[in-house]
Amino acid sequence: MRAMQLYRLGRATWAQREWDDALGRFDDTQRRLAVEVAQDNGWFDRAVFALGRTPDELRLYTLRFPLHHDATIRREAAKNRVDPAWMAAEIRAESVFNPVARSPANALGLMQLLPGTAMTVARANGIPWSGADSLYDPDTNIAIGTAYMRQVLDTYAGQPYFAIAGYNAGPAPMLRWQSQRPGMDPDFWIETISYKETREYVARVFAFSTIYDWRLNGSAVPLDDRMRGRATLARKQFACPVAPAAAG
Fold first, then answer.
1. In this predicted model, what pLDDT tens digit does every residue of 17-59 receive, in sequence order?
2. Is 94 a catalytic site residue?
3. Radius of gyration (Cα) for the chain, nearest Å?
4. Helix or strand or coil: residue 95?
5. Per-residue pLDDT reduced to its tens digit, 69-100
6. Cα 18 to Cα 228: distance, rounded to the nearest angstrom
7. Based on the number of CB atoms within 10 Å of its own CB, is 24 exposed (0-12), middle (13-18) or buried (19 or more)?
8. 30-34 contact pairs (CB < 8 A, 24+)
9. What phi and psi, each to the nearest 5 degrees, are found at residue 43?
């Protein structure tokens, strides 16, 4: 309770200390229940850091892959002609749906946008901009981030695997990687990215996209089509198994 109250007051460091102290005394069931409480209070990344110690916990998909602001994600994705599951996956990878996330490089908000880039994209797309603090507003951040992803996707000829790598690493490494391995199949190209962080990031976003496709639509685009940005009607129906419910 103390951790939740501190989190709601914006005292993230104090909340983290209370959380860690409490979890140190919890068994697996209590830990899972604590994550559910945190999720109900909008503290979504607790599932990422507190679950996964047992196989059953890896199957807690709705906790480990939260979905928030989905109406905004769908709206802005449709406006910019990008996949909403991909945008949700980017948010999960970048901030775990923390609207006030801030990186050491000063990337802000849900989609971790740099203020200078965000301002340029906002002005080019007629999105209201009132300074860097605008990026802490979820609707604004998603609108700008999704428009920026459309821009990055167009830069790389509509190929999502290039766009995701470029979003993470920037244009200079991408120019080098594309010139070094032209015509390589997407899966081999991803696995031979020389930056470990970017290589794992691209694979992670594609994996997250499949889960968020299921969360949003109950089915998913085949991974090969997703990597190549191909529109397809051959969606795959599947169901993620549900872990047993936590006790009382």
1. 999 999 999 998 999 899 999 989 989 888 888 887 788 888 8
2. yes
3. 19
4. coil
5. 999 999 999 999 999 999 999 999 999 999 99
6. 45
7. exposed
8. 32/57, 32/60, 32/63, 32/246, 33/246
9. -95, 80
CATH topology assigned to domain 70-237? Lysozyme (1.10.530)
What is the per-residue burial (b if ≥16 Cβ within 10 Å, else e) of 44-59? Answer: bbbbeebbeeeeebee
Q: Alpha-carbon distance 45 to 66, whole Å?
A: 9
Q: What are phi and psi of 236, to 5 degrees?
A: -100, 125
Q: Where are the beta strands (DSSP E) in 90-214?
A: none
Report, as an integer, the average pLDDT of 108-112.
Answer: 97
Rounded to two decimals, what is the model's pTM?
0.91
- The C-alpha atoms of residue 185 and residue 149 are separated, in whole angstroms, by 22
Domain assignments of the chain as residue spans, ordered by start = 2-64, 70-237
| Residue 107 near residue 114, CB atoms below 8 Å | yes
For residues 6-11, give the mean pLDDT.
Answer: 91
Q: Which of 57, 90, 94, 191 is catalytic?
A: 94
In this model, does residue 122 exceed pLDDT 70? Answer: yes
Contact 85, 160 (CB under 8 A): no
Are 114 and 104 a contacting pair, CB within 8 Å?
A: no
